[in-house]
Design goal:
By secondary structure, the protein is of the alpha/beta class. It has 2 domains: 172 residues, Rossmann fold, CATH 3.40.50; 88 residues, Pantoate-beta-alanine ligase, C-terminal domain (Pantoate--beta-alanine Ligase, Chain: A,domain 2). It is built from 11 helices and 9 strands. The strands form 2 sheets. The chain has a 6-stranded parallel β-sheet with strand order 1-4-3-2-5-6, sandwiched between helices. Helix 7 packs across helix 8. The longest helix is centred in the middle third of the chain and has 16 residues. It is globular, with a radius of gyration of 19 Å. The N and C termini lie far apart (38 Å). It binds pantoate. Pantoate binds next to strand 2 and helix 7.
Length: 279
């Protein structure tokens, strides 16, 4: 695997690959790689000639300095995993390679800015679009791969790509789950054994809402989900929403694409998860 830390190095390497007619797939990550990330890389390997994985813990998307501080950074382990899976290129820049001191960024991402994750992490998606824009401009991938677990992030990045006319195809890959249903996340490492058990309420509730969708109305389903999560010890619900899959505004039974999304703090760790109900 080629490892680059500077923009010049990676641009030189990729311009040669492009000149040789190779297609480029990008899997942007913040490291602490798990099977979910590796499934994105495998998907990219099936569709592109050269697969680039970026590992960059992006400071501008963290709304809580303590969260940024404690974000896991097991870089040697990540490199081993990427090598074992046959990833072609790792891009792992330092913060000052990506950002100048006084950068300003604001993109009009519409109502997605303030809904759900946007409401609980104000400014988060400005940071996400800022860094993804930089990576797309620098790497110029033909295809970029993101996980469904960050469903709202995928919609926000899709909007950015449309607004900026960026020539990249975006692919959303399914959530990878542990055997008991917990959505894989780099943050799961922070769960205590008790948290780990309590966290199962999220995927269980999402699945129950999906299976009950045709027998109850949305308001009742939402109340039931909120009660189930609020009654779970050690768990503090931020939101449970049954939303239109394109806008994330509250869905009605006629919506063509419906997704149920949840965010909750389990112990000291904030987790998100979602499930497609239809569409
Ligand atoms: O999903 C993530 O890990 C991050 O938000 C991303 C897309 C790599 C941007 O920092």
């Amino acid at each position: 695997m080629e490892k680059f830390t500077t923009k010049t190095q990676i641009q030189q390497y990729l311009s040669l690959a492009r000149a040789n007619g190779k297609t480029i797939g990008l899997v942007p990550t913040m490291g602490a790689l798990h099977a979910g990330h590796l499934s994105l890389i495998q998907q990219a390997q099936q569709q592109c000639d050269v697969v680039v994985c970026s590992i960059f813990v992006n400071p501008t998307q963290f709304t809580d300095p303590a969260d940024l501080e404690k974000y896991p950074r097991p870089i040697q382990e990540d490199i081993r995993k990427l090598e074992a899976i046959g990833c072609d290129v790792l891009f792992e820049p330092a913060v000052n390679e990506i950002y100048d001191n006084n950068e300003h960024w604001h993109l009009n991402i519409g109502t997605l800015e303030d809904l759900l994750e946007g409401k609980y992490r104000p400014g988060h998606y400005q940071g996400v679009t800022q860094v993804v824009y930089k990576f797309f401009t620098l790497i110029n991938p033909d295809v970029a791969f993101f996980g469904q677990k960050d469903y709202q992030q995928f919609l926000v990045i899709s909007r950015m790509v449309a607004l900026m006319d960026m020539p990249v195809k975006l692919i959303m890959c399914p959530i990878q789950r542990e055997a008991d249903g917990l959505a894989m996340s780099s943050r799961n490492i922070h769960l205590t054994p008790a948290d780990r058990q309590n966290a199962l309420v999220l995927s269980k509730t999402l699945n129950r809402i999906k299976s009950d969708f045709d027998i109850n109305n949305i308001a009742i389903l939402k109340q039931q989900a909120e009660a189930a999560i609020n009654n779970q010890p050690g768990t503090q619900l931020d939101y449970f929403e049954i939303a239109d899959g394109d806008t994330l505004l509250p869905a009605d039974k006629q919506s063509k694409k419906i997704v149920a999304l949840v965010a909750a703090k389990v112990g000291q760790t904030r987790l998100i998860d979602n499930v497609m109900i239809s569409g």
